[in-house]
Each structure stands twice: as C-alpha cells, then as structure tokens.
Amino acid sequence: METQLFIPFSSNLSHLNGAMSSPTMSDPKERFFRYFQVEVTAIQSQIDDLATLSPVGGERQDCIDTVLAGISRLSNEVMDAGDYIPAYDQRTYSQAIKALTEKINETTASFAPKSRFQFKSKGKTTSQTEPQADPRQRTAFSNVGSRQSPVPNAVKRDAEISTRPSAKDYNEDVEQQSGVRKPSFSNAKSIAIYDHSGLHIMLPSTASRATSSGSLTNLTRCVVDMTVPTSTGAPFAGLALKNIKQSLIVAGHVAGPVHITGLENSTVVVAARQVRIHECKNVDVYLHCASHPIIEDCSGMRFAPLPELYASKSELGAENKWDQVDDFKWLKTEPSPNWSILPEEQRIPEDIWKNSVCGSPSLSTDDVLRRVGVLKTQ
Q: Which among 22, 121, 196, 262 is most buried, taking Cβ atoms within 10 Å?
C-alpha cells in the first residue's frame, strides 16, 4: 500500500492562503513561493516515477541522484532566501523538504532485496548440515531504510540482481548501425540514449511501447528525432535531457514534465505540460507548453513557438505559453536578460524541418546541424 504523504505545496494550496502572504508577482516572496511549489511537485513526480524505471543500466539510480540533488539544492535555496522570507514561511518550506526526504528514503528502501534472515520457531530443530548462527555477530542489514542514507547501495544491488545478459541493449545497438540510426526499443519500457557523438538517430513507431519515460544524456553533435513514437497516442510520461552540446533534439510530445539541464549551443523542439530548464547556455527552444516555462541559472536562451509540422491537432487549438517564461534567478522588476524571443527571420524554415531534419540520404549529421544553424557553415 502506497504511503500517503503530506507535502504543503503539492496540489491544493488553499490552506496556505492565510499563512503565507500573496503579494504581486514582482515581490520576491511570491516568486519564490511559486518556484518552490513547482519544484516540489516536480520532485514528487520524479519519486513516483522511480518504480517505472529499469534498474538495468543505471537509469533508476540516475533518477535517484537527480532527486537527491534537487532536494539538496532546494534546501540551500530556502536558506539563501532567508533574508526576505518570514520565519513562519521558512518553517513551512522546511517541512516540505523533510517530507520529500522521507519519501525518497522510503521509496528507495522498497527497492532493496528482501533479507533472507528469518526467526525460527522454538519447536523446530535445526538441521545438522546448516551452520549455527553466532549470537555474538550482528546481522548486516546495510542500513536499509535509514533516514541518514537513501540506500544507494541497496539500489545498486537491485540493479545487479535484475541484470539479465539476454536483455537487448538498444543504446549499444545504435553504434552498430550505419546511416540514420533507428533503434526499435520494441521490448523496452523506457528510452535511454546516452554517450554518443556525431549520430543521427530517429526513433521508429515501434518505440511507442517504451515511452513510460525518456532520457537523453551526454550527446555531442547529434541529431535525435523522437517525433514518430510520441505522435501515435503514446507521449512520454516524462523526459530528461542532460549534458548535450551542439545538437538538435526533436523531443516529440511529453504528457508530463521535461527537465533540461546542462545544454549548450543546441536546439530543442518539444511539446509538454511543463518545462524546467537549468544551467543551459545558448539554446533555442521551439516550444508548446501548457504552463509557464521555467529557467534557472541560464543565459542566451531563445524561445519560439512549436513548428506546425510537429504540432498535434489538440495542440494547434490549445493555449501555448511558450513566451511566458519565468526566470527564478532574476527577481528584479525589469525583464530578464537571460532569455528572449527568437526573431521570426532567424527561425528554422519549414522546408528545412521537412526535407533535412527528417533525414536525407545525401546529408550527414553535420550537414543537418549546419542547416538548422547549430553548427556554423564553413
């Protein structure tokens, strides 16, 4: 049975209206309030998704590390905001962080393999072939469930136990292909593409079975197109893009949040419910977003609406808040210098999306990147 956890900023905030002030959005207290609310909701969602991630290949552990880093960062930011946040509000924020910490500890503890230690009934005799336990020795439980440690060792053991040599490594399969890579991901539950350079990757429709979650990590000079599997009624539940340079990422459709971290000199195309961007530099984002996009510790960000070629029928008629960006590290009343609207004359033309990005036998990966402006024309 899943533990019901109370976090003050989860979904219903009406109980805080009397406890916390709600001035105009130019007030730092209110901006931090909104920022904290969004971040706590995102971390909760990541913790809830852990059970759906495979322990094979470190995917679950990567998500756990992201959650722990997010909780630590949020705790530090609450302390940094102490100059303008009332003491009562600080206590409320601390309660939410404590609840998140307890939830990640409980969740990771549930992944640990069950101990084989059992108490035997008094009336049952012990077989002579079985070694007798020395009562002076303590049974090692590896501190499972300890609040001081989110049991990363237990998670690693879980990954080792669950590893099966016969399982297909779709990420490795990408390296074995030539031309435009099309890994099927037909028997996978999630999509993880990582540690590649100079590849053009297009996911086929068979990958629509693997959209419980997606992650792209450590890519350089790559083109990745995930439009097809997410346009057939199977959008990603959540997506994470991390440590990507000089690349074009056509991420497709995401029903939940998108986390974009550590991107440089790249272009991203995505339709999502929520978008949170951290520590990115010189990135163009073609976006359809149902909520305000959030940036933090970013510079040189430029935003444009999602190209019509990649928009679904429901998105064409829905409200798009692509240009209502919140910079949570810019608390001044004047506009943030860290993001701007991508001028129409500098946006990628429709024929480039159709004829180059979708894959042409005569174009190399670098050719595509030059045509979309990620790489400079020599």
A: 196
